[in-house]
Amino acid sequence: MSEIVTPDLCDAHPEVDVVEPMFRNLGGKSAFGGEIVTVKCYEDNSVVKEQVGKPGNGCVLVVDGGGSRRIALLGDMLAEKASANGWQGIIVYGCIRDVDIVGQTDLGVQALATHPRKSEKRGLGDLNVVLHFGGVTFRPGDYVYADNNGIIVSEKALPEAQ
User: Fold this and answer.
1) Which of 126, 119, 121, 80 is nearest to 96 (CA)?
2) Domain ranges in the chain?
């Protein structure tokens, strides 16, 4: 994959959607992108855990945690599993934990904040549903690109980022 620079991608593709600036870049990869796989869950990371245990095939897991700042939906063990299984990155509309270890993992991770409390495991959550947060829509099969400048969403793969 070429280096992802979201300002350059925005210049070349003005039609992309730009996520409102609210995310922190916390993973070991400062820039990442790929096809979107979505999870919608609230304070229960059961479906996130299930997905990172499967082959990621270069995709990005976009997790709508409802913006909760009461628990973490991703920690070091799940980040390491996602990296080992070929995920490019994870974007969490919520919190993560174990940030020092996640920051050393070969995985792009962006989240709203950090929180030391782990999530509950009740088996709740929806896979591959359309998500809406940050002023944009995330559809399974669309593409997301992220770096220290921000996050953009495109209906198609952007050739400069492949």
Assistant:
1) 119
2) 6-154
Report the distance separating Cα 98 and Cα 115, nearest Å. 9
What is this structure's pTM?
0.96
73: annotated binding-site residue? no
Residue count of the chain, please give it.
162
pLDDT digits (tens, 9 = 90+) for 36-87: 999 999 999 999 999 999 999 999 999 999 999 999 999 999 999 999 999 9
Q: How far apart are CA 133 and CA 27, in angstroms?
A: 21
Tell which residue, 48, 38, 23, 49, has the closest CA to residue 143: 38
Q: Flag whether 131 is marked binding.
A: no
> Could you report the per-residue pLDDT of 79-108, keeping only the tens digit for each?
999 999 999 999 999 999 999 999 999 999
Domain spanning 6-154: which superfamily?
A: Ribonuclease E inhibitor RraA/RraA-like (3.50.30.40)
Given a contact cutoff of 8 angstroms between Cβ atoms, the answer to whether 78 and 46 are in contact is no
Q: Does the annotation list 106 as a binding residue?
A: no
56 marked ligand binding residue: no
> Which residue from 99, 103, 114, 88 is spatially nearest to 23, judged by alpha carbons?
114
